[in-house]
Please model this.
Amino acid sequence: MNLLKIKNETLMLSVKLGIVTALAGLLLGVVSTVTRGPIAREEAARTQAAMRAVLPKADQFEEHAIPAGYPLVVALSMGKASGKTIGCNVTVSSQGYGGPVVFMVGIDASGVIQGLKVLSHTETPGLGANASTQWFQDRFKNASGTVEIVKQAAEPSQGGSSKSTEAQAVSSATTTAAGTASAIANEISNSDDEDSDAPAPAPANGAGGTTKVQAITGATITSRAVARGVNEALKMFREQLKGEMSQ
Model:
C-alpha cells in the first residue's frame, strides 16, 4: 500500500515537473518571439548610426558583397550621396585579449579615413576597453598617409614641416592602437589622392605622410587586434573597391 502510494506521488511529481517545464519553455518561446523584432530593429538602428558616424557625408548605404580573401571583414557597405558612391564602411572582427574586437571604419573615395568606431568588445576595463573612447577613435580622422604604432608619441618637428601626423594612443592598450594604425597605413599609403588640405584632428606635422599612433599601454594584444582589422579593411579598399568609387 505504501509502495503504491509512493509510486503515485512520484508519478504526480513527474507530471507536475513536466507541466512546469513545458510552460516555462512556452513562455520563453513567446518572450523570444516578442522581443526578436525590437532587438533586431535596435541593432539595425545602431548599425545605421555607426555608418553615419564614420562616413558622415553619405546619405544612404547599400550592402555590398565581401570580396574573397579578407577573413577579418564581416560586413561591407557602400556609402552614397546624391546617387554617387563616395566611400565605404568596412566592419571587421579581430581577436583581442578578451575576445573579438568588432569595429567599423569609414573610408572616402580618395582613401581618406573619415571615422572609426568600435562596435563591441570584451576587453579589460581601463586597459584595452579604452580603445572605444571617442577621443581615441577621433585621432584617426583625416589620416591620409601611413599609420605607424609607436610606444611614445614623437615630438612635432619645427615649423610643422615633417611629413607625419601623430595620433596619441589610449593609455594602457598597445595592441588596440597598433591595430587601428596598421590598417589605416595599408590603405592610405596607396591612395592616389592624399587630400593634403584636410586638417587632422590629431597633433599633426603634415598631411599625406606617416600618422604615428602611440600604443595603448598595458593592452598590446587589443591594439594589435584593431591594427590587423584596419589594415585588412584598407587593403581590401585599395585592391578591390577603389575602382567602384564615383569620379
